[in-house]
Amino acid sequence: MLHPEMSIYAEKHEIFNLVQSMVTNLLVDKPEDPLQYLIDYLKRDSLEVPRVMLLGPQLLGKEPLPDSCVNTCAPVHITAGSILTEDTELARRAQQHREQQQEVPSELWIRLIQQRLSKTDCAQQGWVLEGIPQNREEALLLQEHGIAPDHVVMLEAPDSVLIHRSLGKRVDPITGDVYHATFRWPRDDEVGRRLVQPEVLSEERAAARLLRYQRGAHGICRTYGKCLAAVNANQPHDDVFAQVLTSVLHRPRCVAPHTPRVLLLGPPASGKSLLAERIAQKYNIVNVSCGQLLKAAAVDRAEAGELIKPYLESREPVPDSMVLQILTQRLSRLDCTTRGWVLHGFPRNMEQAKKLQESKFIPTRVFFLEMMDAVAVERIVLRTVDPVTGERYHSLYKPAPSPEVQARLQQNPLDSEDLVLARLNEYWDRTPDLQALYPDAVYINAEQDPHTVFESLESRLVGQLPKRLSDRVQF
């Protein structure tokens, strides 16, 4: 039986993803010496490289976009033309078909692509296939040969826009680079003077080419539906590139076992306790309230309880060392390590957060609940409790049911406006350091009704966080 903390270690170092990637590559490449293959695989500089297909009509003018992707993400840009210029026997056979104005057989074409993608630069840097595949048949053949992209980006635009862009195309006869008279004119005047306009397609030929593309695109969408992202190309080039890059950086769905470890941070009255209760109930994880843990420990006759009890009775802060001891004991229990936990009430400052990390209890999700001070004051100052029944009331949200109950309601001395404002000031003074410590934290507007806040939080809880730019791309 594996140690309960093995899952935490495996998640931190993405062991499951590593093993999955190794097995996938092993089955695709089928090496004669599997053990040596895996050793060489682990020695690579980068195990996670971009594998992207960039598709769209030929009239769209995709040429500038992959260059930007290459400059940003450092993958190898591959087009049909670049594959055919390879000095290989397969490329020469394909050129013969082209010279005889024949279609290159699909099997030969797929073997050419496979040969190019198997080279060291593609294995180490990743690749961007532009305009490949062109139909469902090619897509299925690529899959049969073990070529599967992480992301497929489909550029789309109205037919009228595509035809207009084709009229503005200009080609550098020396380098083969493609420019546009309106959208992408070269900065070098010498290059601009030598640009030539390619053969202009008639409206009938352009319509026929678009129809052929659309028929093939429909089958491609069916093949790559789970990793397909459509991007509107009828907008400025920088905006198109930003959307494509965002799509490429988004992490594919991971099937690795996941133990949720959720941390809720927020000012007083932001609803941390209620949200933690709902999360724990719905996802069967452990609700860990630091305040409740300390109260339970004080009731216990153990040594730790006897030490904590005087602090709680005098309303003084419990030393961090005692708090951390109680907290780490709870988070180390089997239910927390196997089911996960949602923690609130700790940490309250940078020192406590660092000690929590040093104890190896690192959350997988951090949420900051945000609200105005005026709302927090309203929620706290106007709340009261019935000393007879213990029921809580609020002057605005839950008034007393009768004058008799209203007459005996009492306010907690700690809920006075001055003390609440002092607690709020203390929270906001310490929050910037915590925000810097958790750069991937999600910020939730806690001024909404509890159901809306929970839905907003839940939508960020179940999905996997995207890769940070520094983790995936190199500038």
From TrEMBL:
One of its GO terms (molecular function) is ATP binding. This is Nucleoside-diphosphate kinase. Belongs to the adenylate kinase family. Pfam families: ADK. PANTHER family: NUCLEOTIDE KINASE. Keywords: Kinase, Nucleotide-binding, Transferase. InterPro entries: Adenylat/UMP-CMP_kin, ADK_active_lid_dom_sf, P-loop_NTPase. It comes from the Eukaryota.
